[in-house]
Design a protein that fits this description.
Layout lengths: L2 H26 L10 H21 L2 H24 L6 H17 L3 H16 L1 H10 L2 H20 L15 H25 L5 H11 L1 H12 L6 H26 L4 H25 L17 H38 L3 H11 L8 H26 L2 H26 L1
Helix pairs in contact: 1-2, 1-4, 1-5, 2-3, 2-4, 3-4, 4-5, 7-8, 8-9, 8-13, 9-10, 9-11, 10-11, 10-15, 11-12, 11-14, 11-16, 12-15, 12-16, 13-14, 13-15, 14-15, 15-16
């Protein structure tokens, strides 16, 4: 090992120790108090872990490494029991110190990327103490059960599903593993939005709720805010802002979904999909400037998206879309696919986006251009359907605020698509 490489490993160990140590000192926020484990101690612990790993390697004895780390471990144990005498409990600092030594050892063993990642994650977890406690207080027993259900269908069901296509003749398109993988993927996107809403809280603003809600379900945002607008019509522009923002996020979500399954398809859909995203954000900015008051009451809540029934429902819809698309292509050509995609998009754009991306991948059963058009038509249809929800269920003030933005978003996508075709 060169001297430069050796110094790099010890430098990484010391840097991580300083990083964690600084966080610990800031967390205590007692400048006049001499902390038993501050920034200097943590820096030394990182160096000690690195040195212990080197000495153990040089002597060829693992017990030497363990014995060296046991000495500061004993001091940390004494400090812990001393704190208990003063009524202070908690092992966070002690565990952080031990982890710092182990990270230092990883740095010497040349797991530098892992060592840095662990150091950053450890510092982040220590820093987000209050936010994580607040988040944990918002988690319900039902949230835990629902998340466990999702963990089961992800970590247990998915690995045992066969990864091969089934079906008669030309309809040999049903791959249980891929279908369930896409169920996991779309549910994961919904979960990301749900966790963010739990973390930041919906009371910070209707607009923020619309953005986060769009990650979970733009249709849910539309239904909820359209219904609420009847009782609070004076907040029409604010509700419209949240709804349009959720729709805009839906278009962005389509790009992410397609990119995850078939990245080659992005080059064909990105302009007609990005156009309504840009228009949507611009219209949201206009509504934001127009609204005169912020939302100060009421909570807007989502059901946990990890319920088993919605996940299975999505899998069935996705499978049905695959079948309909294949039959439509066989008996109706491209026009059949476009019609089926538009009709299915009225209910669920995610299933169309993922199925078209899958069918146009590899030994494609649907050509890329047809798949791209089908996805765009489905997104437009879904936007029209949600616009219908607003027209039928929303207050007049929301309808007036929503319709120009909806028409502009749809028109931008169609115009861009026509320009590309010319």
């Amino acid at each position: 090992m060169s001297e430069t490489n050796l110094f790099l490993r010890f430098g990484v160990a010391m840097f991580i120790g300083i990083l964690i140590g600084m966080q610990r000192e800031i967390a205590f926020d007692e400048p006049n108090r001499e902390l038993p484990t501050g920034v200097r101690t943590f820096a030394l612990l990182g160096l000690l872990g690195c040195a212990a790993a080197m000495i153990g390697e040089q002597l060829g004895e693992a017990w030497v490494f363990v014995g060296i780390l046991a000495i500061p471990g004993l001091f940390l144990a004494v400090n812990y029991f001393a704190d208990i005498e003063y009524g202070k409990t908690g092992l966070t600092t002690e565990v952080s110190a031990v982890l710092t030594m182990l990270i230092g050892a990883l740095a010497y063993w040349n797991f530098l990327t892992l060592a840095v990642a662990l150091g950053v994650v450890t510092t982040a977890l220590l820093t987000l103490k209050f936010e994580m406690h607040r988040f944990a207080q918002k988690v319900t027993r039902q949230d835990v059960y629902s998340t466990l259900k999702f963990a089961v269908i992800t970590a247990i069901v998915l690995p045992v599903l066969p990864n091969e296509a089934y079906g008669p003749g030309m309809l040999k398109i049903f791959n249980p593993f891929k279908i369930w993988l896409l169920v996991v993927f779309i549910s994961g996107i919904s979960f990301a939005g749900y966790v963010l809403m739990k973390f930041v809280g919906a009371r910070r603003g209707i607009g923020l709720t619309g953005f986060l809600g769009g990650l979970a379900s733009s249709t849910a945002v539309t239904l909820s805010f359209a219904h609420r607008s009847r009782d609070e019509e004076n907040l029409g522009p604010t509700f419209a802002l949240a709804i349009i923002l959720a729709w805009t996020v839906m278009f962005a979500r389509v790009i992410i979904e397609v990119a995850a399954v078939n990245s080659q398809l992005i080059r064909l859909i990105w302009l007609p999909i990005v156009a309504p995203i840009v228009v949507g954000f611009l219209y949201c900015f206009y509504l934001y400037r127009k609204q005169k008051s912020a939302e100060k009451g009421h909570e807007f809540a989502f059901a946990n998206p990890f319920e088993l029934r919605p996940a299975i429902k999505f899998g069935l819809i996705f499978t049905l879309v695959l079948l309909i698309s294949k039959l439509a292509q066989t008996f109706g050509g491209n026009h059949g696919i476009y019609a089926s995609s538009f009709l299915a998009g009225l209910a669920d754009v995610d299933a169309i986006a993922l199925s078209m991306a899958e069918l146009s991948l590899g030994a494609a059963t649907v050509d890329s251009s047809t798949a791209a058009h089908a996805i765009i038509f489905a997104a437009i249809a879904n936007t029209l359907a949600k616009g219908g929800i607003v027209v039928l269920g929303g207050a007049p003030s929301v309808r007036r605020a929503i319709l120009p933005g909806m028409l502009a978003m749809i028109a931008s996508s169609i115009v861009v698509l026509m320009l590309i075709e010319m």
